[in-house]
């Protein structure tokens, strides 16, 4: 039986081991042939013969199992070597991330106002009716509420439709003088080329003694800000309406694409509307309990600025995570 052990030990692949198995343990194998020999063994030797044979068989089986395990392990090892990926290998790609154009634009806007000594205030995205509407001179059933397609929640709260409620929160939490901006996310039920259900605004508010804040201050800050953002453009203040300001104005810049001569982006008007503003309405001051003060406020959409600065035609593309767009902002 010595040479049978050799046969197993010398098998160096799973294939030759399988051949050895058939040769030794198979139906017509060597062990089977040994058992057949039992017939011709004298009766008194049969027991010892069979015992011996069974011991040998057990030994060989153990040896076979061990060998099989060893060969299987090395086969697996070889497979892993062959298909191994060297994760430390340099793949030639060396890409860095970048700020999303909306955040980049937001930061630029914030930088300006911080440099002008405005503080940054934040408020909740889920707002109550009082802060989002009522205190901003938008009583229930006021037709101007239709200007904003609101997401209403079951408990009567809303997803804030603008960052203006932070004005109210700031005025109620502190005392004048106030000089703040509030950058943040806002929500409206709207989805097309220039609207997404979630977008960003920056709200601004300045409040001080009645003789200290005038429309001239508003005009100066916004003109200076728009020159900082868009360079050498003309700035125009156009009479408008907002419930929370009186008088109200919408602010336009001369079209940065056609320089005012009229093109597709400015709808041939030569002007681009970029923000809303005005002198804080007395009803707003009443709602927060302020007296003998004056103030101006403004609000702008960050996406609109980013689209103009980067000539992005479809607002929705800003939120699709398409690398072909985002890669251009590295
Ligand atoms: N809240 C306005 C909006 O979402 C923007 C706005 C306009 C804010 C005029 C103001 C303002 O503070 O004075 O459309």
Strand content: 15-25%
Instruction: Provide mean pLDDT, rounded.
Output: 93
Number of contiguous helices? 11
Q: What Rg is obtained from the alpha carbons, in whole angstroms?
A: 41 Å
Span between N and C termini? 75 Å
Number of strands: 9
Q: How is the biggest beta sheet arranged?
A: 7 strands, mixed
Q: How do the strands line up in the largest sheet?
A: 1-4-5-9-8-7-6
Low-confidence stretches: none
Give the ligands present.
3,4-dihydroxyphenylalanine
Succession of helices and strands:
HHHHHEEHEHEEHEEEHEHH
Given helix and strand content, the structural type is: alpha+beta
Oligomeric state of the chains present here: single chain
Spatial shape: elongated
Helix content: 40-55%
Helix and strand arrangement:
Layout: H1 2-9, H2 14-25, H3 30-37, H4 43-83, H5 101-115, E1 119-120, E2 126-127, H6 129-132, E3 158-159, H7 165-173, E4 178-187, E5 198-209, H8 215-230, E6 235-242, E7 245-254, E8 271-280, H9 282-288, E9 293-301, H10 302-310, H11 323-326
Parallel strand pairs: 1-4
Antiparallel strand pairs: 2-3, 4-5, 5-9, 6-7, 7-8, 8-9
The structure holds 3,4-dihydroxyphenylalanine.
């Amino acid at each position: 039986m010595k040479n049978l052990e050799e046969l197993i030990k010398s098998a160096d692949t799973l294939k030759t081991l399988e051949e050895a198995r058939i040769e030794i343990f198979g139906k017509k194998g060597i062990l089977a042939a040994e058992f057949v020999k039992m017939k011709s063994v004298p009766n008194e030797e049969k027991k010892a013969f069979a015992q011996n044979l069974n011991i040998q068989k057990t030994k060989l089986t153990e040896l076979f199992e061990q060998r099989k395990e060893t060969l299987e392990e090395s086969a697996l090892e070889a497979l892993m070597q062959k298909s191994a990926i060297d994760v430390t290998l340099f793949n030639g790609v060396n890409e860095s991330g970048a700020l999303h154009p909306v955040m980049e634009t937001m930061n630029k806007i914030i930088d300006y106002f911080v440099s002008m000594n405005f503080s940054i205030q934040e408020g909740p995205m889920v707002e109550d009716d009082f802060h989002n509407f009522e205190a901003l001179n938008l009583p229930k059933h006021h037709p101007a509420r239709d200007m904003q397609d609101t997401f209403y929640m079951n408990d009567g709260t809303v997803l804030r439709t603008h960052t203006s409620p932070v004005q109210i929160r700031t005025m109620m939490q502190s005392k004048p003088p106030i000089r703040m901006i509030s950058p943040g996310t806002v929500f409206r039920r709207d989805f097309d080329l220039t609207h997404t259900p979630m977008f960003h605004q920056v709200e601004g508010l300045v409040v001080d003694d009645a003789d200290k804040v005038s429309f001239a201050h508003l005009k100066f800050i916004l003109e200076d800000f728009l020159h900082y953002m868009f360079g050498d453009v003309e700035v125009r203040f156009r009479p408008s309406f907002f419930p929370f300001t009186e008088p109200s104005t919408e602010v336009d810049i001369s079209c940065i694409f056609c320089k005012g001569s009229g093109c597709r982006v400015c709808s041939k008007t030569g002007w681009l509307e970029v923000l809303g503003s005005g002198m804080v309405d007395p009803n707003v001051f009443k709602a927060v309990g302020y007296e003998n003060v004056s103030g101006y406020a403004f609000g702008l959409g960050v996406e609109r600025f980013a689209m103009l600065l980067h000539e992005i035609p479809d607002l929705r593309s800003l939120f699709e995570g398409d690398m072909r767009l985002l890669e251009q902002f590295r």
